[in-house]
């Protein structure tokens, strides 16, 4: 058998042409990589809700920031970008409904949130950012000492005395703490105490914590929609109940009015459905992301503290259940209205069929009467025409007598009557046939 040295070395394999989106789809798995974080570091985070029209403006604002520090800007159309600007590092990511910024500074002061990373960012640039703040957080990454933590003291000193939510994360490689509260500076606060995480693992953990905070708020955008839709659903359900009750006792005269009411009700429901469908769908997606990120944290319980999963299930899950219930109620009502509309439309159609049938029967009766009348008129016409023609024949015969022709005028008139009647009848029949026969 030939050995490996006898085989032809292939330096290039000729393949079919790549799909136009192959590279972009493959690179999507590597998009928005987490920052490498080594304690001690502090980080400030912003998630700005923005319309589609603001995407170009946000990209230009990022370009303005990095160009101030003589750093090359991101490419047009980029969805994520990161660089070191000297006083701080910046990480920018664009999502479908919001854009997020991370500002990272090395070192953590004794009072961990007294000098947040965002203070290193130019204030005039911050004040001009496009969008509305959906989430804002300060994060400090520190080394975890061997001494036991006094969480009650930490709550009073760092978190304003609020109840702490926390757990061991990354399989016990770190401890994450927060209160999920918005403090006086409009930022929430996170502390991540690193025991033995790698820089990349620390970056992923910080990113998951911030995504939990952001997606939690984004999911809750659907709750006001559900709360506003709920009383309208009650009103529409009562209206549908009244229409269906009236339909059972309605006669033909009531059907058009009921159909108008149903059509108006269907229009109102459809209008609201188009407004809320996207929001409820997005809420379900964001809620799924929150659950996934919590699962990725690999929490271990800290005695006396509520875990991230417990806090989320207790606070967020009921809100999502409300949204899901309202969405299902709206869909059910839409189906019921559609069924009632179809039923009433069928009933109206049958009524119109009966009315059309009665109208056709009436037209048939009228046509028969008109035919009889026409035949009567034709008979009278033949008699009248015969009378005048016979009189003319009588006058003609009297004229012949005056010329010396021996004829009896009365006898001539009597003899001409059947001949004139037959000729006139044949003429009328021929005229009727010519009129009624369709043209070729």
Low-pLDDT segments, ≥5 res = 4-10
Structural class: alpha+beta
Average pLDDT: 83
- Largest beta sheet: strand ordering: 2-3-4-1-5-8-7-6
| Termini separation | 92 Å
Q: Tell me the count of domains.
A: 3
Gyration radius from CA atoms, angstroms: 46 Å
Overall helicity: 55-70%
Overall geometry: elongated
Q: Describe the biggest sheet?
A: 8 strands, mixed
Task: Note the total helix count.
Answer: 9
Count of β-strands: 8
Sequence of secondary-structure elements: HEHEEEHEHEEEHHHHH
What fraction of the residues are assigned to beta strands by DSSP?
Answer: 5-15%
Protein described:
It is a single chain. This protein is of the alpha+beta class and 440 residues long. The protein contains nine helices and eight strands. It has an eight-stranded mixed beta sheet with strand order 2-3-4-1-5-8-7-6, sandwiched between helices. Helix 6 packs parallel to helix 8, helix 7 packs antiparallel against helix 8 and helix 8 runs antiparallel to helix 9. The termini are far apart. About 2% of the residues have low confidence.
Please describe the topology of this protein.
Elements: H1 22-28, E1 41-49, H2 55-68, E2 80-84, E3 89-94, E4 98-106, H3 123-127, E5 132-143, H4 151-158, E6 165-169, E7 174-178, E8 188-194, H5 199-220, H6 222-249, H7 255-297, H8 308-402, H9 409-436
Parallel strand pairs: 5-8
Antiparallel strand pairs: 1-4, 1-5, 2-3, 3-4, 6-7, 7-8
Helix pairs in contact: 5-7, 6-7, 6-8, 7-8, 8-9
Can you tag this structure with a few keywords?
eight-stranded mixed sheet; alpha+beta; 440 residues; 3 domains
